[in-house]
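Researcher: Let's continue the batch. This sequence belongs to Glycosyltransferase, and it's 449 residues. Same format as the previous ones, please.
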Amino acid sequence: MASDVNGGVELSVVIPTHEDAQCLELTLRSLCRQSLAPERFEVIVVRDGGDAGDYTDVADAGKGLNLRLIELAERQGRAAARNAGVRHATADLLLFLDSDSYATPELLARHLTHHLDTDRPAVLIGRRDELGLPHVNAALAGEPTIRVPNRRADGGGDLRFPAGYPAGEEWLQAGWMFAFTHNVSVSRELIDEVGGFDERFGLRWGLEDIELFYRVHKHLGLLERNFAYDDAAAAYHLPHHRNIDRNWQDFADNRGLAAEKDLVVEWEFVGMLEAYDSAERVVHYRASIADCLARSACRIGPAVELLPPYLPGHRVLWIGTGSDRTTLPEGALTFDYAAPAGPTNYHLIGMNPPIAPGSLDAVVSVDFWRYLRWDDLCQFINVAGALAGEVHLVSTGAALSGAVDPDASTFGYLTRVLRTAFGTAVSEVDGLGTVLRLRPHLPPAAATE
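Model: Same format as before. Here are the structure tokens for Glycosyltransferase:
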């Protein structure tokens, strides 16, 4: 994705547009009011097909800007439009905005200042508040800032933070989940290194941006702090027509595409919960995996050796670490977080794995189940019970950080609380530990060829 031209500007603002000239004009006018001197940035607008006649006033709206309009003859989708914008960018730093992102005066300066300090995280996420119809006149009048409510429940706020800005910064460990291209900046070099936006998302709505920033995060290191958030790098989301039903269907399709590319814990929770709740879980389970590996814990080898007499067959999903140090029977699958991901080994928690219902004889989790939050543990055993006739939760007694340390009373409680859905039994296996066996009252459907 080499640049077509060379330039001396410090910041390239990339904006895709499709049949929303009324929003784009307001956004360009807001960029004309930036505190950052106009010679220090350029604006690249990529018209993604559609009727060019609607854009006759765009040049006037952007008068005074270093503005270029790139036209794609046929609509190709947001990913392709942004890639085209990146190819035409001349600056080392990119700021992605949407055509309906009405910018506050300090927006560009905040992004540029962040990146001038090379010790700061590589990606800066800005705020974007929702504008309802009561606030449109303020934008039409060219007001630089607009007073809007801080919460979604009150008709405003940032859609990513329905209850207001989250406390602390731990959530930024999964900051890619919030890196929507309506207000996010990153170096051109990083975008090139990860291959740009995936154009296979096509015309569908959603996820092409956070999928890109997941790859940025993975490229820089999953346990590194690669994202920062600046509440003062703010924009407003102009109201426009939305087909919510179609958007959610597009989102579901795109989620499937993204999850297939990376069978990892990060994508298990995208779309299942609010973004912040999903990010919390990703951060928690990444830390759990790191703890497990640091302690050389959750070893499946002893279970592979000692559990077979207790299992109904050899088609088993083994969850833990150390699959390379034991001999697995034919038909076995693993969630081994210490081994490379591959066709039979996924780095998943087990919320919705790509495994056919009824295709396994058993699912065995060695200690890792102890890290799961209660809601996730319930989801895990429900899903596992649909995959196999039995679920075995093994506790070796190993010390783990942030995990339950179950004793006899804990297992007693579990047998009672889970027996509405499962037949339960607890046994002690010499050389291994305590095993809670769960057999679903409704047996899993047989897998079909």
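Researcher: Any comment?
Model: The chain has two domains: 11-262, 291-440.
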